[in-house]
Design a protein that fits this description.
The protein is mainly beta. 4% of the residues lie in helices and 31% in strands.
Length: 346
């Protein structure tokens, strides 16, 4: 039997899946020998599947595997926005290193980040809620997070509780704390406090780790049913798709006299709160504090850290971040997950 090469595997739609490198036949009935070892570089960035992502409202898109975003091997320390929105252009990388994991990602070791510069006070990254419809923001990301570190920030316009801002985190507390699930923090800077919102959380304590669900951290626990109600969150050794929304409204009652309200929701691998039937679906909605602007012209938009030199950093890998100027629907969160899941083995 003559040798042959297998370069790609396609899905049922004919779209390319991962690259298979070094596959050869053996002297049998046509079996293939799959190479062993690290397969990180055998995953290919694929424009066919990536074109399936939601584009309506997309204002920032970075994908480290896309050479139009990051030119690996050239010594470049910048990323280019792929959204085409023209709101931000170039982000400067500091303290992060390239990794082949996830087909191409940046590894952050609790230092550095990507800095897109100061935000436009009239732009979408400053959430003001000045109209009844308010300001809304969604973020989809592929991350591989070390849960031994707390407050792993994915995207932020945040400096401190005394300064107006917002931050989207893969986890609020670490794996030995009570709240290791994806969370959002906001502050209007008026009262020196920052309000955390925790989708799927409805009790004082959440177990940090359930060894029966190997490699996954608990994010949800029913107060009455014990440790059985858990969900997949951020895997210890694999990439996870996180979808997070942040929305605020000013004067939401019909006559415009009601309190400001805000809230956040989370999707984990296409599932709301990480479950087919989510617990406490609205637990992070309806907050009435932090009514001033979130962000200011002096704050920077950053990926993988906040805007404070002694603040919070990501510990882990970030491969993709997509930010929208609206709330994505459940179907849209699933669409983004499905568009790229092949690349991350989901």
């Amino acid at each position: 039997m003559s040798k042959f090469n297998v370069n790609h595997i396609t899905n049922k739609h004919g779209n390319y899946g991962p690259v298979v490198a070094g596959v050869t036949t053996v002297n049998s009935t046509g079996a293939m020998r799959i190479p062993s070892g690290n397969t990180g570089m055998r995953v290919e960035y694929n424009t066919v599947n990536d074109n399936d992502i939601v584009r309506d409202g997309l204002i920032l898109h970075i994908d480290i595997a896309n050479p139009d975003c990051y030119k690996y091997g050239t010594g470049s320390n910048v990323v280019h926005d792929l959204s085409g929105a023209g709101i931000v252009d170039i982000g400067t990388i500091s303290g992060a290193t390239y990794s082949p994991d996830g087909g191409g990602s940046l590894y952050f070791d609790e230092r550095g980040g990507i800095d897109f510069g100061t935000i436009d006070p009239n732009g979408p990254f400053l959430l003001s809620g000045t109209t009844p419809s308010g300001d809304k923001l969604s973020c989809c990301s592929w991350v591989n997070v070390d849960m031994s570190s707390s407050a792993n920030y994915i995207a932020a316009v945040w400096h401190s509780t005394s300064s107006a801002g917002w931050a989207l985190a893969a986890n609020e507390n670490n794996n030995s704390g009570n709240r290791p699930q994806p969370s959002v923090i906001v502050s209007d800077g008026a009262d020196g406090s920052g309000a955390w919102a925790r989708p799927g959380w409805n009790g004082p304590n959440i177990p940090a780790y359930d060894p029966r669900s190997l490699n996954y951290w608990n994010t949800v626990k029913s107060v009455n049913s014990g440790i059985g109600n858990t969900t997949v969150a951020v895997g210890k050794d694999t990439f996870t798709h996180l979808g997070q929304t942040l929305a605020r409204w000013r004067n939401v009652d019909p006559v415009g006299n009601g309190p400001d309200r805000w809230g956040t929701r989370t999707w984990i691998n296409g599932l709301k709160n990480g479950m087919a039937t989510p617990l406490f679906e609205n637990s992070a909605y309806g907050y009435t504090g932090e009514v001033g602007d979130w962000g200011s012209a002096s704050r920077h938009l950053r990926i993988g850290r906040d805007d404070n030199s002694s603040g919070n950093y990501m510990k882990g890998n970030i491969a993709v971040v997509m930010i929208y100027n609206r709330e994505l629907t459940h179907a849209e969160m699933q669409q983004n997950f499905n568009a790229q899941r092949y690349r991350f083995g989901r």
